[in-house]
């Protein structure tokens, strides 16, 4: 019995040991290994973060999209999958060991979160007009600024850029709302700033364009010209990921087809013969191609690297970039260095983070206008001439009397550089007071140090140029912006009811100061250069100023959602600005919008319509688009007055610019009506908008006679009322269900602007060859109309008005015949009529993409139709009245060659050379291949072997094909004149470019 008991005791011990081992073994087996493959509609996704929710355990998918992770509790653990550009996904393990995942691109998902003012919304819940631009479409293009890359990618925006290094594109959102042409407001990571040439587009994660008042009213007085919200990349939880990209681009500038020496001399002698003048003593042994002198092959190098990662408690993103552009014109270039750090940390209910960007940009600016210079100079002029100061050729009175500029000379004798160091960012903190209530404070700061230098060396670049000594000018400026914002966000659901509310306060202070100095007779050094410091030379001049503006704001927004069917959004903002007088500092800007999702209604049944939403809104925006002190009189303290017997000079002061203390806000009122729809299992999506806007109390500088005592510039007044209306349509179709994937997006924008009032009983204003009048568009062409050429003396004699008066009695055969529109028997300015508009009637964008296995193809087309533009360079080449070069193959009228539309060549002043005629107006419509690129993703076995998660090589081109009737260099030109937007007088053209790029990550 004792033996048995001893055995039972041993068995008990063994049982206990077995139980312990079983428990340990069970614990080990409870740590289930989960694996799977992560794809995007069949395409494997490497580098996707995989994390157990609520823990630090994480991994990333490999080059083949596969992942493996050990979970601690296979029954309750939840896996979180995250990847930049894709909607995050949470999947419970539920005891499974194999979990394959199909991530969805956010841009194609109705549940995509869209960044709006001071918050986010689901794309499906938007009630305003907001365009979401795919970041990949922006970043694939070779551009210096963000704005350049937006053309054709969104409706309602007009973008015009140029190929000059460091140039910044002009962008208008839904038309011209004032007469100053202000750019839209940029908001980057919540900071009110700019996205100019010192901002790196490679750092962007998302772009939203707020186009109407309901969307933009939360920004109040600064949003009248629209808002572009940019969010930069952030880190995601998981191991560190490293990405690198490099792109090298070759650029070429379009050229004129110009006459060589033989052809030029023949036409030039003809022009002198017709004027009964002796010929110039042209040097026929020289045949200079001035385009070869001024232009070169441009080169762009663009390198970017970033590091990102983190954990549940905190994430980080660090990037660095270098951009270098050797210009397609001699002595031009642009360099930029960028550095960014974005971090975010969370502990319980407390979150803190920052977004910091540092950039240094240096621009070697263009001198003169090489686009005009190359046609003004004659091919018979040598590049160098030792007889001229500086040693450059530019003609003389006997052999080549022209006032063209030698582009090599001015580029060599003038050095202009503009360098900018900018630091900007914000520090933010959030406190989750309740599950539905969050407080946020953001402290934003931006500072810029600008340094402009101009060195003018001794020498000349044009005929009869007065002597200037060596001159050095330096200009240094400093700007500082401080923004403090406090917001309180509430978000709660009550059954089918959803309520979101925002209350906020903002304060912004801007300070700007500038000093400059100039010295003449700068000393030359032994190396052939100059001592380019301001302690050299003499005749010192100094200048400087500083100013400050303040803006304080209070704002609120309420959103109501009932069952995803009925959506209402209300916004109000009050701004107080220091730019106006005491009685007009504050402006209030409300808006309201609503949407009805019909597809959610019980009565709606459709197998092919997946989503249908109607939207409408109404709201106001404001603008204080004047200088810091324009409401205050300008006092000149330099005046002196002699007094007394000795006529001693006494210091005085006088008001030189009249002031308007009653300046007040410009106010933009907007209406928008639209719908969003999705068809065919969400493969086809369509968005349409119709908008009406009206800007009243437009701030303009009103011209006054000097006899009023106003000699310090025209004072600002609230004088004009402008209107815009238009239609926008975007349609996207994508099919990603098979190995061959493709997508297409087409967008259409129509726009009509109208002057409703110019104020002060003024009905029209003239600028150059344009007229802006009540009831019409801004800057329509107002010129004489041509009516062919006179073919004989009889034609001249028979061209009479109804009273029998010969209209152009001094004309000769081969001269231009003009229409006598008022019938008075003479050609005068009274015969001018409106003959067209510089504004396009509609613009189109077409974006195509396709991929198969490792290859992908992308094409972006852009078209603009209906604009009439002024070809300024052709008005130089074809007028024959002075000594400029001519178009190759031009056929002036002669008795032997009457079948031409080009008048006779005549050196001197004739009506043929008038610049205010429709002879120089052309159809400005065009279609352009903005971008085409083919990419190849390296195969996974190769990537695995070299340790990369992905790699891609891309060959692309920009502006390679342009279809147009315009005879200038580029129908897509831009200028800074509001009233002469269609005037091309040597605008720098867009460049043709070919790029080779490489991108990889690990």
From TrEMBL:
Pfam families: CarbopepD_reg_2 (PF13715), Plug (PF07715). Transmembrane segments: none annotated. The keyword Lyase does not apply. InterPro entries: Beta-barrel_TonB_sf, CarboxyPept-like_regulatory, Plug_dom, Plug_dom_sf, TonB-dep_OMP_SusC/RagA, TonB-dep_OMP_SusC/RagA_CS, TonB-dep_rcpt-like. Keywords: Cell outer membrane, Membrane, Signal, Transmembrane, Transmembrane beta strand, Transport. Residues 1-30 form the signal peptide. Its main location: membrane. It is found in: Cell outer membrane. One of its GO terms (cellular component) is cell outer membrane. Residues 123-227 form the TonB-dependent receptor plug domain. It is a multi-pass membrane protein. Belongs to the TonB-dependent receptor family. This is TonB-linked outer membrane protein, SusC/RagA family. It comes from Pedobacter hartonius.
């Amino acid at each position: 019995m004792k033996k048995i008991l001893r055995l039972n005791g041993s068995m008990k011990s063994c049982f206990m040991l077995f139980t312990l081992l079983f428990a340990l073994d069970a614990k080990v087996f409870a740590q289930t290994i989960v694996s799977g493959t992560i794809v995007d509609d069949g395409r494997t996704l490497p580098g996707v973060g995989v994390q157990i929710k609520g823990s630090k355990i994480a991994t990333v998918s490999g080059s083949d999209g596969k992942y493996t992770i050990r979970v601690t509790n296979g029954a309750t653990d939840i896996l979180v999958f995250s990847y930049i550009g894709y909607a995050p996904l949470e999947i419970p393990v539920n005891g499974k060991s194999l979990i394959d995942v199909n991530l969805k691109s956010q841009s194609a998902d109705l549940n995509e979160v869209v960044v709006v003012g001071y918050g986010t919304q689901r794309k499906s819940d938007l009630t305003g007009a907001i365009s979401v631009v795919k970041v990949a479409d922006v970043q694939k293009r070779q551009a210096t600024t963000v704005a350049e890359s937006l053309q054709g990618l969104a409706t309602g925006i007009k973008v015009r850029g140029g190929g000059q290094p460091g140039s910044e594109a002009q962008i208008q959102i839904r038309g011209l709302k004032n007469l100053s042409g202000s750019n839209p407001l940029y908001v980057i990571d919540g900071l009110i700033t700019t996205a100019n040439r010192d901002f790196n587009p490679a750092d962007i994660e998302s772009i939203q364009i707020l186009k109407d008042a309901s969307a933009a009213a939360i920004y109040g007085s600064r949003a009248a010209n629209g808002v572009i919200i940019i969010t930069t990349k952030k880190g995601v939880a998981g191991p560190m990921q490293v990405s690198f990209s490099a792109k090298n681009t070759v650029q070429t500038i379009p050229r004129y087809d110009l006459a060589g020496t033989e052809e030029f001399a023949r036409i030039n002698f003809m022009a002198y013969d017709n004027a009964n003048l002796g010929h110039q003593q042209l040097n026929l042994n020289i045949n200079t191609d001035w385009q070869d002198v001024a232009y070169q092959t441009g080169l762009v190098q663009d390198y970017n690297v970033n590091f990102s990662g983190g954990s549940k408690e905190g994430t980080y993103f660090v990037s660095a970039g270098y951009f270098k552009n050797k210009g397609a014109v001699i002595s031009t270039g642009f360099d930029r260095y960028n550095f960014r750090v974005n971090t975010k940390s969370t502990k319980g209910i407390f979150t803190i983070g920052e977004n910091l960007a540092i950039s240094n940009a240096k621009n070697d600016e263009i001198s003169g206008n090489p686009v005009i210079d190359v046609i003004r100079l004659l091919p018979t002029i040598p590049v160098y001439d030792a007889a001229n100061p500086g040693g450059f050729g530019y003609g003389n009175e006997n052999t080549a009397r022209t006032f063209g500029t030698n582009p090599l000379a001015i580029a060599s004798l003038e050095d202009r550089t503009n360098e900018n160091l900018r630091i900007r960012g914000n520090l933010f903190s959030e406190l989750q007071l309740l599950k539905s209530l969050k407080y946020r404070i953001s402290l934003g700061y931006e500072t810029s140090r600008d340094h402009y230098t101009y060195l003018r060396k001794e020498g000349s670049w044009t005929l009869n140029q007065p002597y200037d000594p060596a001159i050095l000018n330096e200009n240094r400026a400093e700007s500082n912006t401080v923004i403090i914002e406090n917001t309180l966000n509430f978000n709660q659901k009550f059954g089918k009811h959803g309520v979101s509310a925002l209350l906020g306060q903002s304060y912004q202070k801007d300070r700007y100061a500038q000093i400059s100095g100039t010295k003449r007779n700068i000393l030359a050094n032994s190396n052939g250069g100059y001592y380019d410091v301001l302690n050299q030379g003499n005749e010192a001049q100094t200048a400087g100023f500083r100013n400050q503006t303040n803006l304080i704001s209070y704002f609120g927004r309420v959103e109501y959602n009932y069952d995803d069917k009925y959506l209402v959004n209300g916004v109000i903002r009050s701004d107080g600005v220091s730019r106006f007088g005491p009685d007009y500092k504050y402006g209030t800007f409300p808006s309201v919008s609503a949407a009805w999702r019909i597809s959610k209604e019980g009565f709606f049944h459709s197998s092919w319509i997946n989503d249908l939403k109607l939207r409408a809104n109404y709201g106001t925006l404001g603008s204080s688009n004047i200088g810091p002190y324009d409401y205050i009189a300008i006092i000149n303290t330099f005046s002196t007055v002699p007094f007394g017997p000795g006529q001693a000079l006494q210091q005085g002061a006088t008001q030189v610019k009249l002031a308007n203390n009653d300046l007040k806000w410009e106010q933009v009122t907007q209406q928008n009506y639209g719908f969003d729809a999705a068809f065919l299992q969400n493969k086809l999506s369509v968005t349409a908008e119709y908008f009406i806007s009206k800007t009243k109390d437009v701030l303009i500088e009103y011209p006054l006679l000097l006899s009023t005592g106003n000699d310090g510039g025209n004072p600002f007044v609230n004088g004009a009322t402008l209107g815009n209306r238009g239609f926008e349509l975007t349609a996207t179709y994508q099919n990603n269900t098979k190995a061959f994937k493709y997508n297409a997006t087409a967008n259409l924008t129509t726009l009509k602007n109208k002057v409703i009032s110019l104020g002060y009983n003024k009905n029209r204003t003239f600028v150059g060859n344009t007229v802006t009048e009540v009831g019409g568009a801004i800057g329509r062409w107002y010129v004489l109309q041509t009516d062919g050429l006179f073919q004989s003396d009889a034609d001249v004699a028979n061209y009479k008005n109804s009273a029998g008066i010969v209209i152009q009695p001094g004309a000769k055969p081969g001269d231009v015949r003009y229409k006598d529109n008022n019938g008075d028997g003479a050609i005068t300015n009274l015969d001018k009529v409106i003959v067209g508009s510089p504004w396009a009637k509609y613009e189109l964008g077409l974006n195509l993409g396709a991929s198969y296995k490792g290859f992908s193809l992308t094409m972006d087309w852009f078209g603009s139709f209906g604009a009439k533009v002024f070809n300024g360079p052709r008005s130089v080449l074809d007028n024959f009245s002075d000594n400029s070069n001519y178009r190759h193959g031009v056929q002036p009228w002669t008795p032997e060659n009457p079948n031409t539309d080009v008048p006779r060549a005549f050196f001197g002043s004739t009506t043929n050379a008038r610049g205010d005629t429709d002879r120089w107006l052309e159809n400005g419509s065009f279609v352009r291949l903005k971008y085409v690129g083919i990419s190849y993703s390296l195969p996974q076995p190769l990537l695995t072997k070299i340790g990369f998660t992905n790699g891609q090589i891309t060959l692309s081109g920009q502006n390679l094909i342009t279809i147009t009737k315009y005879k200038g260099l580029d129908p897509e030109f831009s200028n800074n004149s509001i009233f002469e937007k269609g005037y091309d007088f040597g605008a720098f053209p867009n460049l043709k470019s070919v790029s080779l790029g490489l991108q990889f990550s690990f």
